[in-house]
Amino acid sequence: MASKVIPALLLLGFLVVVMLSFHPTPLQSVALKVLPPKVKSGANPELKRYWMVFLRKGSRRNQDTAVAAKIQCDHLANIHQLADAGKIIVAGPFGNDEDLRGILIMNCKDSLEVVSLVNRDPAVVAGRLVFDVKPWWTVKNTVFK
Questions:
Q1: Cα 138 vs. chain centroid, distance in angstroms?
Q2: Among 106, 130, 101, which Cα is nearest to 51's?
Q3: Where are the beta strands (DSSP E) in the chain?
Q4: Which residue from 56, 60, 38 is spatially nearest to 47, judged by alpha carbons?
Q5: Cβ(89)–Cβ(77) under 8 Å?
Q6: What residues have CB less than 8 Å from 21, skipping those under 6 apart?
Q7: Which of 77, 91, 125, 139 has the most CB atoms less than 10 A away?
Q8: Would you call 135 helix, strand, or coil by DSSP?
Q9: Residues β-bridged to residue 91
């Protein structure tokens, strides 16, 4: 019995010493280092937020050739319409046949607007594409004017 009590008491004593000598320091969020600081309204922020949309293969890609071609044509027309409206800045496919099919960089006020616009895309509606949305910042006037 003593062979179990003595190690337990030593462990307990060690834990008490550790707890009494521990001085926690607050951790800074990784987001504080990655994301730009919030700017007070009226200030001239150096960064502009855009939205990256990653288009991936959807689960419903079994349409016949004619239907798939029509969906693709409507998808491209939708991209042109959103580009003309200033909502899409960059759009294009990747040059391989992997799961990640293409990317859009969108100029919208928030992610809800992005999701609303992309959900109307004919390829998304048909299930040929699904998407992920990520915020993306760039220094003003360095990439897009």
A1: 15
A2: 106
A3: 47-57, 88-93, 100-106, 129-139
A4: 38
A5: no
A6: none
A7: 91
A8: strand
A9: 104
Say which residues have a Cβ less than 8 Å from residue 60's Cβ, sequence separation at least 6.
Answer: 126, 127, 128
DSSP string, 35-97: SPPP--TTS--SEEEEEEEEEEE-S-----HHHHHHHHHHHHHHHHHHHHTTSEEEEEE-SS-
Query: Phi, psi at residue 90, to the nearest 5°?
Result: -135, 140
Phi and psi, residue 31, nearest 5°: -60, -30
Tell me what pLDDT residue 43 has.
Answer: 44
Q: What is the pLDDT of residues 84-123, one digit of tens each?
A: 999 999 999 998 888 999 999 999 999 899 999 999 999 9
Closest to 139 in 3D by CA, of 50, 43, 8: 50
Residue 99 region by backbone torsions, left for phi larger than 0, else alpha for psi between -120 and 50, else beta: alpha
Question: Do residues 44 and 92 touch, judged by C-beta distance below 8 A?
Answer: no
Spatial contact of 36 and 103, defined as CB atoms under 8 Å apart: no
